[in-house]
Amino acid sequence: MRAILPLPVYTIGPLNFLTEQLVSEGDLAGIRSSLWREDQSCLEWLQGREPRSVVYVNYGSVTTMSKQELVEFAWGLANCGYDFLWIVRNDLVKGDAAVLPPKFLEATKGRCLLVSWCEQEAVMRHEVVGAFLTHCGWNSMMEGLSAGVPMLCWPFFAEQQTNSRYACVEWGVGMEVGDDVRREVVEARIREVMGDGEVGKEMRQRAMEWKEVASRSTVQPGGRSLANLETLLKDVLKWPPTTNN
Q1: Each residue of 56-98: pLDDT tens digit?
Q2: Which SUPFAM superfamilies does this chain map to (predicted)?
Q3: Average pLDDT of every residue of the chain
Q4: Residue 146 CB contacts under 8 Å (≥ 6 apart), including other chains
Q5: How far apart are CA 77 and CA 212, in angstroms?
Q6: How many CB atoms lie within 10 A of CB 102?
Q7: pLDDT reading at 198 higher than 90
Q8: What does 40-94 look like in DSSP terms, one character per residue?
Q9: Which residues of 152-186 are buried (b: 16+ CB within 10 A; e: fewer)?
Q10: End-to-end CA distance of the chain, in Å?
Q11: Which helix (H) or strand (E) covers residue 115, if one does?
Q12: Contact in structure between 51 and 128 (CB atoms under 8 Å)
């Protein structure tokens, strides 16, 4: 991009690490990036569970699915044997309310939590979360990489297919569910990512490597992203301001 654009290009990110640092320092206290009201009960529910024992499921703020896809995902999660936290927005199903089968709720009682939204970054940083089932939106991808969490990918539109390919093929931290959602495939993918086989171990190792790269670039002294942010402020905003009038 630097070679083809007449203006400077500043590579900055993951932004969630940068904003997290500013919040911790008090510069952006109380600032949240979420578009929805967050349910704080999620973090309480996670407490006391075994490390890397929970699947976190969130399809983002705008992605929708059919009733059939909702049911297939539901039974795939129910049959995988792991606890799971599932973000089910009211408008998740196209043209209808997101209603899950009563038998599903009975089968998963005590090992699942269904909420409309949560503080995603805090959830994925929790030690009990072992995998992230995602629509592969860019913000979710960055938050997943920053937390070092392997991903199960179900891209929907826009940049999500590209993000999914990078996660699964280039970065080695993801595995695709497939366009034709089937409960047995969802179950198998979860077991493979969460299990102690070679695939799961390698994905977790790669995820932790990317977490370290993200941290080194953004929050550690001399990190490339942090340095580029400082350069942007100096070049574009003329920061810090001069003391002269």
Answers
A1: 999 999 999 999 999 999 999 999 999 999 999 989 998 888 8
A2: UDP-Glycosyltransferase/glycogen phosphorylase (SSF53756)
A3: 88
A4: 14, 16, 17, 121, 211, 214, 215
A5: 30
A6: 8
A7: yes
A8: THHHHHHTTSPTT-EEEEE-TTT--B-HHHHHHHHHHHHHH-SEEEEE--TT-BT
A9: bbbbbeeebeebbbbbbeebbbbbbbeeebebeeb
A10: 37
A11: strand 112-115
A12: yes
Right CATH for 35-209 from 3.40.50.2020, 3.30.160.340, 3.40.50.2000, 1.10.150.120: 3.40.50.2000
- What lies within 8 Å, CB to CB, of 178 at 6+ separation is 185
Residues β-bridged to residue 132: 56, 151
Can you read off the two tokens belonging to residue 186?
């969802």
CB environment 206-245: b (16+ within 10 A), e (fewer): bbeebbeebeebbbeeebebbebbeeeeeeeeeeeeeeee
Rounded percentage of the chain residues whose pLDDT exceeds 70 = 88
| Domain definitions of the chain by residue range | 35-209
Q: What is the mean pLDDT of residues 16-25?
A: 62
Distances 32 to 35, 41, 92, 127, 145 between C-alpha atoms, Å: 9, 17, 22, 22, 19
**Rounded Cα distance, 194 and 80, in Å:** 10
| Contact criterion met (CB below 8 Å) for 156 and 184 | no
Place of tokens 């102690």: 196
Confidence band for 8, pLDDT divided at 50, 70 and 90? confident
Q: pTM to 2 decimals? A: 0.87
pLDDT tens figures, 131-159: 999 999 999 999 999 999 999 999 998 99
d(CA 150, CA 173): 5
